[in-house]
Specification:
With 932 residues, the protein is α+β, with helices and mostly antiparallel strands. The protein is built from 22 helices and 33 strands.
């Protein structure tokens, strides 16, 4: 017979080679799919809205802080234009922090429905124009009121509560008492005719809170009670180039289109703009234009009323000067500031005892709040009230709007500073926030509207910790600007356009939230989001209250000439494709930008990552003792995350493939060595026929050569199909291990005379009186096969431990970024399948090895059965044999698993040892059950 026929006849060699080839095909297929899934996941999530972040001074470290509009400036407009002229630039969008703006929310009020019905003298001509949506006089509802005909005494308790997301704080609590009743219409005779007026009940005293709050008054629809002032709210303002920002954001940036039509710098005189709107009413304005907003240089200014009223107030108070500029703004829609105003209403008797709890009404700043625009955001309704003012029809935007101009300031506006701490196993870096000064909020104005002093003891000022520094300003003191609202934007829509895993910081109008995860003592707490503070100087911030252009920045900060005020430029390269395909062009562009003396950070291939930040000195008690907040998490940007994730997980994939196949090859070798000893009798016969030892080895090696050729062909085919150098190297390693096992096996064919190993009268022989002693005697008699099987089982345990360690180590190896988690999830299932295939192949090969002595075992088990041993005793013999083999294999498996774990996955080495132990222990009952 030739070598091929002998190879097929041997069956064992054919079976082990077939198992190894099947394992190679399956493992390479699974590994290729895993690598493809990894590459696809990384490519789809590694290129954000821009590719290069340009700053005057880039931060150190691989983590990029999300607040890139930090007020530091440093980039000149000449440099911006030079960046735009580079051939590789598609979009270059600058952004800067302008300032903080403190807004007075106006006086809150409580409206109790006291609707008097239609009266021509009071309704005037408002209902005459049905096109405006007014209700016809005969269709007005009947009069109704929540108040009684006779005045009753009430106690109102007004309070404001704010929350930082961690704890609530009552800012003030004020009480006022008085009598209120239902108003009535009174007709009075006057010269030339009669007049109608609204009169309160004779015994009504009204309710008056302490100054600067007003009193109470009746109108056609309600009784309005003036409430204590709400705390001032502070917002931030950022500056962008509207055209470039729209190009960067795509359709999500369409809200900036009105800002592109803003007048040039020399046409923004606040006085001229204010006089223009005053002139509209002098010359007349129709209702349609009133509703849509008057046209101003091609833009319908829907929010013209706040502009005009703030202009008039600023002019009267002397805030407006000849240098004051009108600043065009796109304001944020809604707010995340947690500020709630409450009013508790109680009916009381003359002694102050509560007769009836009318109820408590509350209102929070929410999605309807517009910075620079909203008038009276805290208008609360008495329980049971209905608003009947809609009968007057649409009044367009003809209302006073926000009356008091905002106060602009550059104090405590810059981005927070952090210091680096320890680095975790997955690369995450711990940071510590740098605390700044304390900022006092919740103060009342020094004087009321009529000029009288205000009692400052009404409420307790609140100190908030600032983590920000002051901004630089121009040489000239900035004149008070006039806010001119051009439109609104939705921060959530911008955030959606920015992406998720590949989200890059856009600037102040797309902030990254903070989440508290540990208290000051380091104990885990339920994840709680931090809310922005009233002063807007803390760590947590909301989206900028408004967006302006760079002429607006110059006016707000007092710059009269071009200055280096650009904080960052977000550059998109003119290079299509994934981050990997665009990488050469992006690197070339970044190098050219660095040649201008600027810092260019490549963010293509970056991903967001949660940074752990310890927050010291967050609050203080009445005695001035400061307390730490704890550890918060914020989404930062991990540079080169795609490269790191691809490299680490690709390495894990390759290692899994290598460990699976090389472990299978080693087990095949152990099986081969054990099997070849059975052919010693053939070798003896050939030796007697005159064959030399060398010829006998060659004769056996020819059979192994057939298996090696099959493995080589399979390896070549797999390497060509996958077109991977890794696959080729792993297949070569498998072939080398198989060949090495073959040569070692051939060395075992030295023929020796069989000598009787059982002297009849040896006192050292252990009497066979139990299954355990018989199993021990039997294994001791066949030491070579026993050791070969033990080594095979030990290799199996070590391989299982290494595979498990690699699987456990995947999340750590991937890193801490969002891309890491996504990529790890994409390779998790293929990696588990690959490891599972390795475990199954290893188990099968150990069972094959255990079957080599099966015929001999069946013979002596048959003899034992004839001697009267029952089936339980025979089963125990098999169990004890495998248990004794396992006891020898156990240290090999555990130590081997620990060694592989320490080499490949040190952080999971202990788990590798445990997995090796479990694998060997599980092999014992499986082998007992299967090999019978």
């Amino acid at each position: 017979m030739n070598a091929v026929q002998r190879f097929i006849r041997s069956r064992v060699l054919l079976l082990t080679a077939a198992i190894l080839i099947a394992a190679m095909c399956l493992s390479v297929l699974v590994q290729s799919q895993s690598q493809a899934a990894l590459s696809r996941t990384v490519d789809e999530n590694s290129r954000g809205l821009y590719d290069v972040l340009v700053q005057a001074k880039a931060p150190s470290g691989a983590l990029l802080q999300p607040e890139i509009a930090n007020g530091t400036g440093g980039i000149r407009f000449e440099q911006l234009e030079a960046i735009r002229k580079l051939s590789g630039t598609s979009v270059a969008a600058p952004i800067s922090l302008v300032s903080r703006v403190t807004q007075n929310l106006e006086a809150p009020r409580l409206d109790a429905m006291d609707y008097l019905g239609y009266n021509a003298g009071l309704a005037g001509t408002a209902t005459a124009d049905q096109a405006a949506g007014a209700t016809a006089p005969d269709q007005w509802p009947a009069a109704e009121s929540v108040l009684s005909d006779e005045a009753r005494k009430y106690r109102l308790t007004a309070s404001a509560v704010s929350s930082d997301g961690i704890s609530e704080q009552t800012l003030f609590k004020s009480t006022a008492e008085g009598t209120l009743g239902k108003a009535k219409l009174v007709e009075e005779q006057a010269a030339g005719g009669s007049s109608i007026r609204i009169a309160a009940p004779a015994d009504e005293t009204g309710i008056k809170f302490d100054a600067p709050a007003g009193g109470s008054e009746h109108n056609l629809f309600n009784l309005s009670v003036s409430l204590p002032l709400a705390p001032e709210v502070t917002e931030s303002v950022v500056a962008v180039d509207p055209a470039a920002e729209r190009a960067l954001l795509g359709s999500a940036g369409d809200f900036l289109s009105p800002l592109e039509k803003a007048p040039p710098a020399d046409a923004r005189d606040a006085g001229a703009v204010g006089r223009y709107f005053e002139g509209l009413f002098t010359n007349g304005i129709d209702l349609d234009e009133l509703e849509e907003g008057p046209d101003f240089l091609g833009v319908k200014l829907k929010y013209w009323a706040p502009l005009m009223t703030q202009y008039q107030q600023a002019k009267r108070s002397g805030q407006l000067t000849a240098d004051s500029q009108a600043i065009p703004l796109i304001v944020r829609s809604g707010t995340t500031l947690d500020l709630k105003y409450n009013v508790k209403i109680e009916e009381i008797d003359d002694a102050g005892k509560v007769v009836k709890d009318v109820g408590t009404v509350s209102q929070s700043l929410g999605q309807d709040y517009l910075p620079f625009v909203s008038k009276d955001p805290f208008v609360l309704s008495w329980p049971g009230s209905t608003d009947h003012s809609s009968v007057l029809g649409a009044t367009g935007n003809f209302n006073q709007g926000l009356y008091t101009p905002a106060q602009w300031s550059t104090d405590f506006a810059a981005a927070p500073q952090y210091t680096d701490g320890e680095t975790a196993a997955n690369g995450a870096v711990e940071k510590t926030a740098v605390p700044g000064e304390w900022v006092t909020v919740n103060r009342l104005p020094e004087k009321s509207a009529n000029g009288t002093p205000v009692d400052q003891t009404q409420r307790e000022p609140v100190d908030e910790r600032s983590y920000r520094e002051n901004l630089e300003t121009g040489a000239q003191k900035a004149a008070a600007p006039l806010a001119m609202v051009y439109g609104t934007f939705d921060p959530s829509a911008v955030a959606a356009a920015a992406g998720d895993v590949n989200k890059l910081p856009l600037g102040g109008y797309d902030p990254a939230p903070f989440t508290l995860v540990k208290d000051a003592e380091g104990k885990d707490v339920p994840a709680t989001g931090l809310e922005p503070s009233l002063s807007a100087t803390g760590l947590a911030s909301q989206s900028a209250g408004a967006i302006t252009d760079y002429y607006g920045l110059a006016a707000a900060r007092g710059y009269t000439e071009n200055a280096a005020v650009i904080d960052a430029v977000r550059v998109r390269a003119d290079a299509p494709g994934s981050w990997k395909e665009a990488q050469p062009d992006v690197e070339k562009l970044a190098t050219e930008i660095r040649g201008m003396g600027l810092e260019a950070t490549i963010v293509a291939g970056s991903a967001r990552e949660d940074a752990s930040i310890f927050v010291p000195g967050y609050s203080k008690d009445g005695a001035g003792k400061e307390s730490d907040l704890g550890t918060v998490q914020q989404s930062w940007v991990r540079q080169n995350a795609a490269d790191a994730v691809t490299g680490s997980l690709s390495g894990t994939n390759i290692t899994l493939l290598f460990l699976t196949l090389c472990g299978a090859a080693l087990l095949t070798g152990a099986s081969t060595v054990s099997y070849i000893r059975k052919r010693r009798s053939e070798a003896g016969t050939l030796r007697a026929m005159g064959w030399t030892q060398r010829r006998i080895r060659s004769w056996v090696l020819e059979e192994f050569g057939v298996g090696a050729v099959l493995l080589a062909v399979a390896g070549i085919v797999l390497s060509l199909v996958s077109w991977s150098l890794t696959t080729a190297l792993v297949c070569v390693s498998v072939l080398v291990l198989y060949a090495g096992a073959a040569f070692f096996a051939a060395q075992q064919l030295r023929h020796r005379d069989v000598i009787d190993q059982e002297p009849q009268h040896d006192e050292r022989l252990i009497p066979v009186d139990s299954p355990l002693t018989f199993a021990n005697r039997q294994l001791g008699t066949n030491k070579f096969n026993t050791l070969a099987l033990a080594v095979a089982v030990g290799v199996f345990g070590a391989a299982v431990g290494g595979l498990i360690a690699l699987l456990i180590d995947i999340p750590r190896a991937a890193g801490a970024s969002a891309l890491s988690g996504l990529a790890a999830a994409s390779v998790a299932l293929p990696s588990i399948l690959l490891a599972l295939a390795g475990v199954i192949v290893g188990l099968v090969l150990t069972l094959v090895t255990g079957r080599f002595e099966l015929n001999a075992k069946r013979q002596y088990l048959g003899i034992l059965e004839a001697m009267g041993w029952n089936p339980d005793m025979l089963r125990q013999v098999r169990l004890f044999e495998n248990a004794l083999v396992g006891s020898v294999a156990l240290p090999l498996g555990v130590l081997g698993a620990l060694g592989i774990g320490l080499l490949l996955a040190p952080y999971a080495a202990l788990w590798a040892g445990v997995a090796g132990l479990v694998a060997v222990l599980c092999w014992i009952p499986i082998a007992t059950k299967v090999v019978q």
